[in-house]
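**User:** Hello, beginner here. Are you able to go through the protein record under this note? It all follows right here:
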Amino acid sequence: MDTAYAPRLRGSRVPVGLRAPFSGRTWREFLYLLLSLPMSVLMFTYAITVLALGTGLLVTTLGIPVLAGGLAGSRALGGLERARARALLGLEVAAPEPPRASRPGLMGWVGAVLKSGASWRHVVYSLLHLPWAIFSFVFSLTLWTVGWALLAYPLWRWTFPAYLDQPGALMWGDGHGHGVYLDTPTEIGFTSGFGLLLVLAGPWVIHGLTQVDRVMVHGLLGPSLLATRVSQLESDRGVVVDTAAADLRRIERDLHDGAQARLVALAMDLGLAKEKLAEDPEAAAKMVDEAHGEVKTALRELRDLARGIHPAILTDRGLGPALSALSARCTVPVTVTVDLDRRPAAAIEGIAYFTASELLQNVSKHARATSATLDVWTNADRLMVLVADNGQGGAHTESGTGLAGLAERLDAVDGLLIVDSPSGGPTCITAELPWRG
């Protein structure tokens, strides 16, 4: 998701294309391609040996344990590959799900390893990556070294007449003294210019080659899509549980500090009024009148608290009227536009309402805006909520902020929060929610 935009610093005046051959990213990716060949040879040799030895011993009792141990070794080598990709490519790939034994003991572990799809994906990676590593190694090394060598040709061409008894690099020859040499100023300049083109193209070619490695590492050495989804759902469930617990604590605090305290004071006042009823009816009547006012205040606080849990107007009339009533309580003038032909699921409707409520509170408290807009519409299977203001900007979703918590709550239901808030404004915050109508 997007975060706030900080003021832009003045960047380098050198074009990106000219900086790329000297950038750290290019040389790290080039080093990754160079190291891929020996690493792939090791993994390929190991995988072939393990498969041959394990399948060959299947006629004995040693075959299955040997094969399981070999698969476990492939997973360990895959861990080295993920670490290499993380260090040189900046690619963060989580470790795959560990084998889950259905029973204790060695045979339970052996069965879990053999049944693990992640273990076999590591073997497939070992077999597939070698031919690609050979190609990318040869291609990148040739392109990169030849490019730099040709670019620097004017600096080292003197070695030909000095040591090889020929005027320059031989482009073509028949072995009988007839040949074409790169020795004239035009030929030297053309050679250096062609080398410059190779050097400038090299970083993009190298980056393209490493993209294939990224796909292979992520797809074969990482967790499966199902495991990733399960992990995401577990994380989302934790966010939902924490949010619900925080809401319960807020309700308890509001009841304790608000309505409950007023009701306790009301009971005490009515007790005093009861004692004074016989001896001083006028004072008792005055105390009862004050207690009546306290009752109204307590009822108003309870009504506000209930509205904070789930407003009745949202249940009865839907998002349009509920958001109109919400914007009317905002200290900044808000223009509300709701374009929905039907109502979403009640849970999504409630999340959209409280998302808009929190965003409008931020406008009131922090934006220093003079006007705001609230738009709600559908886009395919998504419910869109957009709050924009003409304030000072600078909103962000860094950890610990209210927007960070809001983003986590939206993510828990497969939603998304997009923040566009450059310093100086304006601010546009879009919440996307699944429709689930």
